[in-house]
Specification:
The complex is a heterodimer of chains A (55) and B (227).
Chain A: H1 9-29
Chain B: E1 13-14, E2 17-18, H1 20-25, H2 42-59, H3 70-87, H4 99-120, H5 122-126, H6 139-182, H7 187-226
Antiparallel strand pairs in B: 1-2
Classes of the chains: A mainly alpha (55), B mainly alpha (227).
Transmembrane segments (chain B): 14-34, 69-89, 98-118, 139-159, 167-187, 190-210
Organism (chain B): Anas platyrhynchos (Mallard)
GO cellular component, one term (chain B): proton-transporting ATP synthase complex
């Protein structure tokens, strides 16, 4: 059964860990989760106008 | 003839180069690395949803200290999942059927969980060697048994993944061979065998996903004991 043959085990291990650490992990890190959609209307701020002192 | 069914598991070479490298690297292409300025599309949304779900499921039983492992466990799950699923395509090679690859993943990660426990809270992780409320005469035997079960974990982890995927691929090949061989003699039985093959393929897709999840889930359970 060839799948039990550990022949190039070191290169397989190095390749597996390099793929995991250098390819998959940086890829997953770039995914940014968004907030779940909410029904609440976003708060609208109404700034009160003011007069500049020099006008 | 007896051995030829296992030939699908031998690592293929092309011009002296092992193709296992390609089959390790290619599944990563399924996941893009979206930049900040990317517009969401359906694919990236569903991938994001899946990653979020996996991370949430894995992190729920762990306490706050274990959440540092989120990236490690989620990326391991993603890698195993993509390799397992792409390996189900016909005429492809599945690296996760190789015992050496699974042990290369299982052993260091198991050792990491163990060393984390022994470094941060040695007495609590050593206390797992004896279940609470054991009768006194049983204590030496139980400690021996629990030590063995602790040390056998990485082996079980690697062999589980190998055995499940190997068995699935073998069954698919056996049934499809039977279906081809029966076609000239018993067409009806051959069609029935094809139906079974279809059902088996659905089962194998499920097994590919479940085994990737089980591998990571067991690692997170070992982590939970030690953190």
């Amino acid at each position: 059964m060839p799948q039990l043959n550990p022949a190039p085990w070191f290169s397989i291990m190095v390749m597996t860990w390099l793929t995991l650490a250098l390819l998959i992990q940086p890829k997953l890190l770039t995914f940014t989760t968004t907030n779940p959609p909410s029904k609440k209307p976003s708060l609208i701020t109404k700034p009160t106008p003011w007069a500049w002192p020099w006008t | 003839m007896n051995l030829s069914f296992f030939d699908q598991f031998s690592s293929p070479h092309l011009l002296g180069h092992p193709l296992i490298l390609l089959s390790l690297l290619l599944p990563a292409l399924l996941f893009p690395s979206p930049g900040n300025r990317w517009i969401n599309n359906r694919l990236s949304t569903i991938q994001l949803w899946l990653l979020h779900l996996i991370t949430k499921q894995l992190m729920i039983p762990l306490n706050k200290n274990g959440h540092k492992w989120a990236l490690m466990l989620t990326s391991l799950m993603t890698m195993l999942l993509t390799i397992n699923l792409l390996g189900l395509l016909p005429y492809t090679f599945t690296p996760t059927t190789q015992l050496s690859m699974n042990m290369a993943l299982a052993f260091p990660l198991w050792l990491a969980t163990l060393l984390t426990g022994l470094r941060n809270k040695p007495s609590a992780s050593l206390a797992h060697l004896l279940p609470e409320g054991t009768p006194t005469p049983l204590i030496p035997a139980l400690i021996l048994i629990e030590t063995t079960s602790l040390l056998i974990r990485p082996l079980a982890l690697g062999v589980r993944l190998t055995a499940n995927l190997t068995a699935g691929h073998l069954l698919i090949q056996l049934i499809s061979t039977a279906s081809i061989a029966l076609k000239p003699i018993l067409p009806t039985v051959s069609i029935l065998t094809m139906a079974i093959l279809l059902l088996l393929t659905i089962l194998e897709v499920a097994v590919a996903m479940i085994q990737a999840y089980v591998f990571v889930l067991l690692l997170s359970l070992y982590l939970q004991e030690n953190i």
